[in-house]
Design a protein that fits this description.
- The chain has 463 residues and is of the alpha/beta class.
- The protein folds into two domains: 137 residues, Aspartate Aminotransferase, domain 1, CATH 3.90.1150; 270 residues, Type I PLP-dependent aspartate aminotransferase-like (Major domain) (Aspartate Aminotransferase, domain 2).
- 42% of the residues lie in helices and 15% in strands.
- The protein is built from 17 helices and 15 strands.
- The strands form three sheets. A seven-stranded mixed beta sheet has the order 4-10-9-8-7-5-6, with helices on both faces. A four-stranded mixed beta sheet has the order 1-2-3-13. Strands 11-12-15-14 form a four-stranded antiparallel beta sheet, with helices on one face.
- 49% of the residues are buried.
- It binds 3-[O-phosphonopyridoxyl]--amino-benzoic acid.
- The site of 3-[O-phosphonopyridoxyl]--amino-benzoic acid has 18 residues, from helix 6.
Length: 463
């Protein structure tokens, strides 16, 4: 058997990595000089790197390892499925048991009336599927000019050309372009952009940008709106309570399709199966990936409302991927959902992990550098600021303070990411109160060290 050599010294692995491996969203030449941190194994919420550090993973990988690492059941299911039927496609009038079983299971846990799934290999692919579904939907209904999809600035929907265009990150648009027929409205980030408005008034105003945009474009040209219930990659931006009800009202009023991108918020992250339930959203399509398989296999999909699926089903749909409903990925996802359900992980989030983490997370606002603290389910962020009262930004380039703080976390064996000058967490759903204590203690230590160093370097100043 071809065993990957894991006895190599870290420096040699780093050199090979630098020589041959192009990392995503990375300045690869800078990383090559520094050397990547190389992960070797993981169990529960704990990662171990090649230097033997035990790191607490406050990000569940990349927001995906919902059930935690090292669950043997998934490995067993994958091996069995590979032996039984390693691959078959779902094109050309064929199907297979894992895809059928997973689609049926998803229909069971999805909100009422959402009983159809189109499988993809990732969240980005699923959002590309969504572009096709919504345009095809209006096409079949005899309104082919309804093609424009409205997303939000600082939204994230993936990194393919389609997904990257739906997302509102200019840094991504700059690298490869923006697909025609996709426009963006403002995001509901009260902390950074709310000015003197109350969060509620600001949330309402940002939602009403959707109505203004629909009027400007002409409703006859608008196909759909897409948004994450909580923006994840954008910095765990929890919208004010007024936001989603108003978005829902506007989508209903103008009859445009509503896509909830649940790639991060799905499968228990917010304390319900889906973020749409947490926020009272009634989407036509939900994008899923990540937690669907807890990251053990690459799989994503679009969960489609019956009324939309019926229209799409009424004619040929020229779309699909080699790995749509891949049997091994589907079998693993099914086992993952069984574990979430039977081990009552969502109840654990709601009744144990969230309440305990919330208390400790909110207390971080006592730190001189922390403005607001937000936590929904197990998805949280803190805003770093030199002046809490005015919600001031730092004088340094955005992200400088966040990056320096993240570096302290990394040094203290905590994975807590930064987005700009916000720090974010999304630990595995199985995290225990004792592990939350470790996470918070390391976070506090890192904040303290970052604060002291910033002061010493004259960087703790408002811009
Ligand atoms: N939608 C949302 C809401 C996501 O968060 C995608 C779609 C794309 O999924 P794939 O499987 O194609 O990556 C995502 C992915 C970050 C980060 O820096 C977040 C994601 C991916 C990579 C980095 O937080 N989210």
């Amino acid at each position: 058997m071809n065993k990957i050599t894991n006895h190599m010294p870290t420096a040699e692995l780093q050199a090979l990595d630098a020589a041959h491996h192009m990392h995503p969203f990375t300045d690869n030449s800078a990383l090559a000089k520094k050397g990547a941190r190389i992960m070797k194994s993981a169990k529960g919420v704990w990662l171990t790197d090649t230097e033997g550090h035990m790191i607490i993973d406050g990000m569940a990988g990349l927001w995906c390892v919902n059930i935690g690492y090292g669950r043997k059941e998934l490995a067993v299911v994958a091996a069995q499925q590979m032996e039984e039927l390693a691959y078959y496609n779902t094109f050309f009038q064929t199907s297979h048991i894992p895809a059928i079983a997973l689609a049926a299971k998803i229909a069971e846990i999805a909100p009422k009336g959402m009983n159809h799934v189109f499988f993809a290999g990732s969240g980005s692919e699923a959002n590309d599927t969504n572009i096709r579904i919504v345009r095809r939907y209006w096409d079949i209904l005899g309104q082919p000019e309804k093609r424009i999809i409205i997303g939000r600035r600082n939204g994230y929907h993936g990194s393919t050309i389609g997904g990257g265009s739906l997302g509102g990150m200019s840094g991504i648009h700059k690298h490869g372009g923006l697909l025609a027929g996709i426009v963006h409205i403002g995001q509901p980030d009260w902390w950074s952009e709310g000015g003197d408005a109350t969060p509620e008034a600001f949330g309402l105003a940002r939602a009403q940008e959707l109505e203004a945009m629909i009027k400007q474009l002409g409703v006859e040209n608008v196909a759909a709106f897409i948004g994450e219930p909580i923006q994840g990659a954008g910095g765990v931006i929890v919208p004010p309570s007024t936001y989603w009800p108003e978005i829902q009202r506007i989508c209903d009023k103008y009859g445009i399709l509503l896509i909830a991108d649940e790639v991060i918020t799905g499968f228990g992250r917010t304390g319900n199966w889906f973020g749409s339930e947490t926020f009272g959203i009634r989407p036509h399509i939900m994008t899923v990936a990540k937690g669907l398989s807890s990251g053990y296999q690459p799989i994503g999909g679009s969960i489609v409302r019956d009324t939309v699926a019926e229209v799409i089903a009424s004619d040929e749909f020229n779309h699909g991927y080699t790995y749509s409903g891949h049997p091994v990925a589907a079998a693993v996802a099914l086992e993952n959902l069984r574990i979430i359900q039977e081990e009552k992980m969502i109840e654990h989030v709601r009744n144990v992990a969230h309440p305990y983490l919330k208390e400790r997370w909110d207390a971080l606002t006592e730190h001189p550098m922390v403005g607001e603290a937000k936590l929904v389910g197990l998805m949280g962020s803190i805003a770093l600021t030199p002046n809490k009262a005015t919600r001031a930004k730092f004088a340094s380039e955005a992200g400088t303070v966040g990056y320096r703080t993240r570096e302290r976390c990394f040094a203290n064996d905590l994975i807590m990411r930064h987005v700009g000058d916000r720090m974010i967490i999304a630990p595995p759903l199985c995290i225990t109160p004792a592990e939350i204590d470790v996470l918070i203690d390391r976070a506090k230590k890192s904040l303290d060290e970052s604060y002291t160093a910033l002061k010493a370097d004259g960087l703790f100043v408002a811009g």
